[in-house]
């Protein structure tokens, strides 16, 4: 069964990834509307052998649209997603605009697909770091409840969009040519550097990215009491985030048990080759659907073998954004 599909923010990094994944997965649609800001209206995009003209995103863009994939920024989602829902479309929104709204399901299909049917016109896609971190944690948590998570992220430029990826490339060239790096997309030099995530800093000293990971994980796991603390860092990588995750379980858990559980977990690929010191890297995950997991080891500082460390890598633009939204759309159909 096909559907009438719209993509809001089609010219951005995630919008382009939407098109790539729709083609790869042979997503069935009867019609497709490509929407973006007035700046991009009129651009032509070739897709599946047909030429589409990008239209300006307005509140009247959604007549006869069944599913609208949104990745046009939080302010635009707040402005246009309710209009799309009112027109009868189901919005799958890739921004933070509705994630913590109690009336909006926050969905990762490998974890809580049942929430999709509870929608009232809008379904939220979680933050990229949340998705990449908790897809592999979920099967472990289900087998043995996690009491506490300590997460450190190493986030690629792709998380800040196309302009940030281009900035990493141009700064690298500038520095290698002996020039001063130009900073526009990021507040600091990203090439040959690492810095605290560039989201807004709260009074507690935690940035918005860290707060999102805590709140979203609790909502998705339906576990308001789980203890989580995060440190989010930008690193000079084009795409694919990495995360170091320390888990404290209710009962003992061994690395072998973790490997067994993750070897059959949907959306997860174990790459844990101790013999060759070969573990997940951004270049493994870039362009791939699965979250790669390795460095699976006992945390010997936690008594009774209740602690485990894992290291994960996942493509921020795919499973961290566009793929997750399209998996939700597939379940809607």
Topology:
Layout lengths: L3 E5 L4 H12 L6 E6 L7 E4 L2 E4 L1 E2 L10 E4 L3 H13 L3 E4 L28 E3 L3 H16 L2 E10 L6 H15 L18 E2 L11 H14 L5 E8 L6 E9 L5 H9 L4 E3 L11 H4 L5 E8 L8 E8 L3 H15 L1
Parallel strand pairs: 1-2, 1-6, 2-5, 6-7, 7-8, 9-11, 13-14
Antiparallel strand pairs: 3-4, 9-12, 10-11, 12-15, 14-15
Helix pairs in contact: 1-8, 3-5, 3-8
| Largest sheet features | 7 strands, mixed
Full CATH superfamily name of the largest domain:
Dihydrodipicolinate Reductase, domain 2
Put simply, the count of helices is 8
- Output the strand order for the largest sheet: 10-11-9-12-15-14-13
Structure description:
The structure is a single chain. The protein is an alpha/beta fold and 333 residues long. It has helices spanning 13-24, 74-86, 128-143, 162-176, 208-221, 255-263, 282-285, 318-332; strands at 4-8, 31-36, 44-47, 50-53, 55-56, 67-70, 90-93, 122-124, 146-155, 195-196, 227-234, 241-249, 268-270, 291-298, 307-314. It folds into 2 domains: 4-126 and 321-332, Rossmann fold; 130-316, Dihydrodipicolinate Reductase, domain 2, CATH 3.30.360.10. The protein is globular. The N and C termini lie close together (7 Å). The mean pLDDT is 97.
């Amino acid at each position: 069964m096909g559907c009438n599909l719209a993509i809001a923010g089609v010219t951005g990094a995630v919008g382009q990834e939407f098109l790539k994944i729709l083609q790869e997965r042979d997503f069935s649609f009867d019609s497709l509307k490509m929407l973006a800001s007035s700046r991009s209206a009129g651009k032509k995009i070739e897709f599946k052998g047909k030429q589409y003209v990008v239209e300006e995103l307005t509140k009247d863009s959604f007549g006869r649209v069944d599913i609208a994939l949104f990745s046009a920024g939080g302010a635009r989602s707040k402005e246009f997603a309710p209009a799309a829902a009112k027109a009868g479309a189901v919005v799958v929104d890739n921004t933070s605009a509705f994630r913590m709204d109690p009336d909006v399901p926050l969905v990762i299909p490998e974890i809580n697909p049942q929430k999709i049917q509870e929608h009232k016109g809008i379904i939220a896609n979680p933050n990229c770091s949340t998705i990449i971190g908790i897809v592999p944690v979920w099967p472990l948590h289900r087998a043995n409840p996690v009491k506490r998570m300590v997460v450190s992220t190493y986030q690629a430029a792709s998380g800040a969009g196309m302009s940030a990826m281009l900035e990493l490339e141009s700064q690298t060239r500038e520095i290698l040519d002996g020039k001063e790096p130009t900073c526009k997309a990021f507040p600091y030099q990203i090439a040959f550097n690492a810095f605290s995530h560039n989201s807004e800093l709260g009074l507690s000293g935690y940035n918005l990215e860290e707060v999102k990971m805590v709140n979203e994980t609790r909502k998705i796991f339906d576990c308001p009491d789980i203890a989580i603390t995060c440190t989010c860092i930008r690193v000079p990588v084009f795409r694919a985030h990495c995360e170091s995750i320390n888990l404290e379980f209710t009962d003992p858990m061994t690395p072998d048990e973790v490997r067994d559980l993750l070897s059959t977990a949907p959306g997860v690929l174990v790459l844990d080759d101790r013999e060759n010191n070969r573990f997940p890297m951004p270049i493994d995950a870039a362009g791939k659907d699965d979250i790669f997991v390795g460095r699976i080891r006992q945390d010997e500082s936690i008594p009774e073998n209740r602690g485990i460390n894992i290291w994960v890598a996942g493509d921020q633009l795919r499973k961290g954004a566009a793929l997750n939204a399209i998996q939700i759309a597939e379940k809607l159909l």
